[in-house]
Design a protein that fits this description.
- Helix content is about 45%, strand content about 15%.
- The chain has helices at about 5-10, 45-50, 55-70, 80-90, 100-110, 125-130, 135-145, 150-155, 160-165, 185, 200-210, 225-230, 235-240, 245-255, 260-285, and strands spanning about 15-20, 25, 30-35, 95-100, 120-125, 150, 175, 190-195, 215-220.
- The protein has 15 helices and nine strands.
- The chain has one domain (about 5-240).
- It is an alpha+beta fold.
């Protein structure tokens, strides 16, 4: 377990040296989560909840998003453009957000002060090595382009998600750079993971390929220090979410007194404890709690 901010940096930048280039170019993508028990689950999977037909749900979401968003998305062309745009704008998709930057990942670990009483985590996936598991057709595309990640243009010959999913019976993951939809995409150094199964869960994929993944645990005791170091390094909401909304979010967090954070966190914990005890009481009584 890391004990200092420098320990965290050392772990995050581990493996960055590329001997073939003679440069420090990390092959890892980074995803930061505020708590270690947060699942690596897409918004689409969470929306389906294990009950809905996820293929039909995904198709309906994208069909209607394309229909109603047409006037605001004149640049979108292929299904991959629409998928990236939907993810960027909050539509539940099969994509997960990653970044080339470990510091951006740390921002999302420490974005919410109410989580500072819990250990966070940064997941690191070697997307260069993960490419070896891709279907031959996709590996050939990367080889011809001389790239380690896909763009929406590189995927365009696959006209539908069904074509993509049918490339291999074994679930696989491709890493895709989104188009430069706005400054936020650029500033976050964004990258998406794209699974070949809409119901796929990245936790399961990582468990099946442990040699491609590692985790850097971020102790709760270090979160305030890390947050202050990130702010001093200009890695904050104002930069990562350009515009007045991001500016307001940054100022609100930056000037929130520690005492206020502590009292709010305690209130959240008390509420969660009360709900847990209430559920446990209903289970012991064998009823729903109704009279």
């Amino acid at each position: 377990m890391a004990r200092t901010w420098l320990d965290i940096l050392e772990q995050l930048f581990e493996g960055s040296w590329n001997p073939s280039l003679g440069r420090y170019r990390s092959p890892f993508a980074f995803r930061g989560l505020p708590a270690t028990d947060c699942a690596m689950t897409s918004r689409l999977v969470r929306l389906a909840g294990g009950r809905a037909d996820i293929n039909r749900l995904e198709h309906a979401l994208l069909r209607n998003f394309r229909k109603y968003a047409r006037a605001d998305s004149s640049r979108a062309d292929s299904i991959w453009d629409w998928l990236a745009l939907g993810q960027h704008r909050g539509l539940p998709t099969r994509l997960l957000d990653w970044s080339y930057s470990p510091l951006v990942a740390l921002h999302f670990v420490t974005e919410d002060p109410l989580t500072y009483d819990r250990d966070g985590v940064v997941w690191c996936v070697n997307f260069v090595e993960a490419n070896r598991l891709l279907p031959q057709k996709l590996r050939r595309v990367l080889r011809e382009e001389g790239s380690d990640t896909f763009t929406v243009e590189m995927l365009a010959p696959l006209r539908t998600l069904r074509e993509f999913d049918a490339l291999d019976q074994t679930p696989f993951v491709a890493f895709v750079e989104p188009p430069a939809l706005d400054q936020r995409i650029l500033n976050q150094f964004a990258l998406f993971s794209l699974m070949s199964d809409p119901a796929g869960e990245f936790d399961t994929w990582m468990a099946q390929h442990p040699g491609l993944c590692r985790r850097v645990d971020v102790p709760a005791a270090l979160k305030w220090e890390i947050r202050d170091m990130l702010d001093q390094s200009n890695v904050n909401e104002r930069v990562l979410f350009p515009g007045l909304d991001g500016l307001s979010r940054w100022l609100t967090r930056y000037y929130t007194p520690m005492a206020t954070v502590s009292s709010r966190a305690a209130a959240v914990r008390d509420t969660a404890t009360s709900r847990s005890r209430s559920r446990a009481g209903r289970r012991r009584s064998g009823g729903s709690g109704r009279r």
